[in-house]
Each structure stands twice: as structure tokens, then as C-alpha cells.
Amino acid sequence: MLGILIALLSGALMSIQGVFNTEVTKNAGIWAAGGWVQLTAFLTCVIAWFVTGKSELAAIFQIDNKYMLLGGVIGAFITFTVIKSMSSLGPAKAVMIIVVAQLLVAYLIELFGMFGVEKVGFDWKKLIGMGLAIAGIVVFKWD
């Protein structure tokens, strides 16, 4: 149950952040806004690291697959793409498409066992659910 509540909070925060970032972009430009987002996220993480008890920072670099350290780079492009999609589609349409894309990619990662994730078997119900989600976007976007 806690996982569901945290996931709901995450989704709400992502939507709010996307709107905030899109508004900041109107004044500062997309890369300045994105840089601000990443800088404030970094500062928040540093403060949280000090408050919650410092773990060994060097442990980050002991990860076997070094490409896993590219999360921040991906985060910069997530910020960019969320801002661009929200400014062109509006928050609701952009978030619907973003969430469906997240679902599809997450399922493919699980299906093929990519990036060290435990592999799952194909499930027709999940494919039908994905089709329904895509149909929902079409219905929602239908003006």
C-alpha cells in the first residue's frame, strides 16, 4: 500500500514539476530552466544526504555497469522533453502520452530482462491494457 501511495505522489509531483518548469522556460529558456532544475535537485540531494546520514559516496563508482551512472544525463533530457511536450500539448495531454510511453518502455524492459531487471513472461492482459491506455489517449485528444 505504501508503494502505491508513493507512486501516486510521484506522479502528482511530476505533473506539477512539468508545469513549473514550462513556466520558468518562458522567461529563462529551456536549458537555463533545465539547469536550474538539475542544480536545485542536486542541492536538495546533498542536504538530504547530510540529514539522513551520509553513506559512502565512493560506493556509487563501485557499480559494475558504469552506464548506470547516466541517470542524471537522462534526467536532463527528461526535463527538456517534458517541458517541450507540455508547452506544445498542454499538461494533461503531455502527461497522458508520457505515462503511456513510460508504461510501454517499462514493460519492454521487464519482458526482455534489460539492465539487470528480472525477466517476466509475456502477458496478453498487459498488452490489452496498453492498447486501452493508447485508446484512452486517442479519446482524450479527440477534440
Structural notes for this entry:
- The chain has 143 residues and is an all-alpha fold.
- Helix content is 76%, strand content 0%.
- Helix 1 crosses helix 2, helix 1 crosses helix 3 and helix 3 packs antiparallel against helix 4.
- It is globular and about 45 Å long.
- The protein starts with a helix and ends with a helix.
> Portion of residues in helices?
over 70%
Q: Main β-sheet, in a few words?
A: none
- The radius of gyration is 18 Å
Q: N- to C-terminal separation?
A: 36 Å
Calculate the mean pLDDT score and round it: 91
- What structural category do the secondary elements indicate? mainly alpha
Q: Low-confidence runs (pLDDT<50, min 5 residues)?
A: none
Helices and strands, in order, run as HHHHH
Strand content: under 5%
Number of helices: 5
Please state the overall shape, judged from the principal axes of the Cα atoms. Answer: globular
Give the arrangement of secondary structure elements:
Layout: H1 2-28, H2 30-52, H3 71-89, H4 91-112, H5 124-141
